[in-house]
Design a protein that fits this description.
mainly alpha, 12 helices, 292 residues
Length: 292
Amino acid sequence: MSHEESASHEESASHEESASHEESASLGRAAAPGRVAALGRVASDTRLIFLRSMRQTLRSKVAVVFGAVQPLLYLVLFGPLLSDLVDVRGFGAGSAWQVFVPGVLIQLALFGAGFAGFGLIADLRSGVVERLRVTPASRTALLLGRVLRDTVVVAFQGAVVVAVGLALGLRAPVGGIVVGLALVVALAVSVASLSYVVALRTRSEDAFAPILSSVTLPLMLLSGILLPMSLAPGWLDVVSRFTPFRYMVDAARAAFLGDYATAAVAEGALVAVALLVASVALGARRFRRENA
């Protein structure tokens, strides 16, 4: 091969390599707006599904009000019984309300968002999900819109519970109340997502209801919602540490005492974030598979 041919081949290879780099850079620039557009579409579709779901909820204001009745009954009828336990060893620092109200908030998220699956089963039976399946709506948005509605409802009910608690004698810093409600919101997102996953698997109230009660009741008791687990026997205290809600209850109680920079708050926040990410990912995957 002559020097001219060799130089020609090298120049050609250089041009091809340069063109390849330019094409890759162009594809990268094109992919970035594409991802942004996809996220924008999910956000827009989530908003539409949320508004639709919220309108359905507001048509039945009784359901929203009665959703908060149970935790309010716990506050009014069970809370005063704890006043004599304040000085009992292991009950925890602070007043009885600072121990009890945070637990009731976590209970509200556990049960309020846990029942969300019943609404999805009704939509499956009436054909609403089938009609949404043929639309170009994002499959992930079908989950997020519903979960956002459930979270707003639980957050509203949680604010009502805190207001009633303050009226009954609760004294907590504003920052602690905000942290407690933030944990409730995170838990509501997680529980609602998992509730929809179970609803899609069962597709029947007859199967969904016993599963829900069989899971939520032990979790409520083991989380120390009604009474601190520090009062429990050693073996029961150890078992409760395998439930994620135990750490969120402890974190909310520490926040209501104003103890923000503690291991309990850090552990509760970490568990809340991990549970939220895993639950939403599982729920989105199930919705995409269901509506593929």
